[in-house]
Amino acid sequence: MSVNEKFSAIRKGLLEFLVLQIIAAEKVYVADILRQLSSTEFATQEGTLYPLLSKMRREGLLDYEWKESEAGPPRKYYELTAKGREQLRETLEYWSKINGTVKNLGQK
Amino acid sequence: MNKVIAINLDGNAYQLEEGGYDALRAYLETAAARLQGNPDRDEILSDIERAIGEKFRTLLAGHKTVVVTNEVAAVIAEMGPIEADPGKAADPGVNGPGAPGKASGQAAGEERAAGHAGPPRRLYRIYEGAMISGVCNGIAAYVNIDPTLVRLAFVVLTMFWGTGVLVYLVMAIMVPVAVSPEEKAAASGDPSTAQEFIRRAKQGYYKAVKGFPDRKARREWKRRFKRDMRANADQWRHNWHCYWSEHIPIHPGMGFALPLISLLHGAAKILWICGLVSLLATGAVFGLALPASVPVWVAALLLFIAYGILACPLKVARRACYQGLGRPNWTWSFVFLLDAVVWLAVVAALLWLAVHYFPELREAVRSIPSVAHQAADDIRAWWKGK
Questions:
Q1: pLDDT per position as a tens digit, B307-341
Q2: Any chain A CB within 8 A of the CB of B35?
Q3: Contact B72, B24 (CB under 8 A)
Q4: In the beta sheet, which residues pair with residue B238?
Q5: From the centroid of its chain, how far is CA B2?
Q6: Helix/strand number for chain B, H first, E second
Q7: pTM for this one?
Q8: Is B378 an 8 Å CB contact of chain A?
């Protein structure tokens, strides 16, 4: 099993927090999120993202509004709720803790 | 020339080639099935429809109005498989490193690796790596074993009165060669995109049936699914028909061959009936007495088998003629009518001749009821004795 495969479950779990982070920076629609992720290890597809975004909205982490696009029908632009921001802050804190643990454990 | 189907995605109309429509419908049905029980199901589905519509719109710049099958497949691949339960790590490897756009093969590979059965297989001859005409190769791919084993089996079969050679020849003539990528895929059971999606839709069908809360909804869904599948089957039949009528040259000789073949077939049938009657009436086939050890019913069976062997190639040839004639128009209707008339005339003439010239036959025809009674009594007695 390659490292890549071993991390697939972890990548999947982390995707939610990366999406939080992307949406925190600015109001985005799905194609923006996909584009930002596409060059990273977390490249994903609509088939994964839409169910995830719906789940996060149901949990009250984000909300969306309809905005007209220059060509074609309106798009859903996502933004974080207060709860989403709080969760992102907690997650970042926790992540830096994990990061420290990974770096320091076993070192003398 | 391909059929075009208009669809409605989240309130906007698009025109798709038929193959693309099938693939897209299968994709959306799979999505709906996977999201069964998800509280946001409808919203996610409309999101996905809208995203697909947006991709179609970018493909339809300028005066292009129809999305072709390959483009639909590419869009579906770009969308990626629907993940029913995001955030749960239990679902294995859907979110690999594959960049969007090249994920279709990968997704298919994963499905296969996860132990799902392949798409329905078909028996084809496969020329790649064949020794003679690809029969053994095709069988090996069909049942997924080494071709050498199949070849050995044929050699062994040949030792029994040359059966292997006979079977091989028949298969070499009857079994089609896998030419297109889809056929090659079907020969070995490897998925090829559109078929794979349709297969997944079928798989989704069973999951969906399980997921329905009440029986009424389940029945409704089953009915709809069956109707769709029937429509698919009709479409296939139609495609085959078009294919045959385009690809088989209509040879003028077929118009004459057909009545001739019918005539021979009719003669074989008459021969069989006469033989059977003479057997029942006189205990001998056309004066050829049976050995005492062979009971009458065995002789009748043998007679039937002999008739089958004689009539089989004629039947096949007749069928081939009908198929070769393709779409019947007035001329061909006339040929068919002629065929039927010749056939009936021959039967009638032969019967008349037989009854007229063979008093025994007349006797035999008259004695059929009593013979039948006798046979029934014999069977009853035999059954009781047993």
A1: 777 777 777 777 666 655 555 555 666 666 666 67
A2: yes
A3: yes
A4: none
A5: 22
A6: 14, 5
A7: 0.42
A8: no
